[in-house]
Amino acid sequence: MSKVALVVDDSMLVRYTVSRFLEDRGFTVEAATNGKEAVEILARVHPDLIVTDMQMPQMSGSELITVLKSKPETSKVPIIVITGHASGLSEGDKRANFAISKDIEVEVQLEKALSVIDGSDYAHGQSAGK
């Protein structure tokens, strides 16, 4: 059974890039354009990983992380933050397991993040079932 990832970003290009990267590593991916949509998806999906942008309309990544950390069923789910600015981390970023910048090769950073968070074969393109 494959792991599920929730990708939350208002940029269609970033959602697509991150989703394809994770699918190539055996994840089933659900996608949302903002935190509010992500919360709605979480009512029916229990992800093994959440990748979220910080600056989004309707509900920011920081607000989404607050919701995630407040619920027992999502409080332990690893979070990767994708931010458009490489300078210092905000408080919301610090609650995540890993933060990467959109300004630098996203796929290379995702590879590193997955290996740090999961320590499994996902970072090496292996199937989730192995």
Topology, element by element:
Elements lengths: L3 E5 L3 H13 L3 E5 L2 H8 L6 E5 L7 H10 L8 E5 L7 H4 L3 E4 L4 H13 L12
Parallel strand pairs: 1-2, 1-3, 3-4, 4-5
Helix pairs in contact: 2-3
Q: Can you give a write-up of this model?
A:
Strand 1 (4-8), helix 1 and strand 2 form a beta-alpha-beta unit. 37% of the residues lie in helices and 18% in strands. The protein contains 5 helices and 5 strands, in the order βαβαβαβαβα. The radius of gyration is 13 Å and the shape is globular. The chain has helices at 12-24, 35-42, 61-70, 91-94, 106-118, and strands at 4-8, 28-32, 49-53, 79-83, 98-101. Strands 2-1-3-4-5 form a 5-stranded parallel β-sheet. Helix 2 (35-42) packs parallel to helix 3. Residues 120-130 have low confidence and may be disordered. The protein has a single domain (4-124), classed as Response regulator (Rossmann fold). By secondary structure, the protein is α/β, with parallel strands linked by helices.
The coarse silhouette is: globular
Task: State mean pLDDT (0 to 100 scale).
Answer: 82
By DSSP (H or I, 4+ residues per run), the number of helices equals 5
- How would you name the CATH homologous superfamily? Response regulator
> How far apart are the termini?
9 Å
Strand content: 15-25%
What would you report as the Rg, rounded to the nearest angstrom?
13 Å
Total separate domains: 1
Helix content: 25-40%
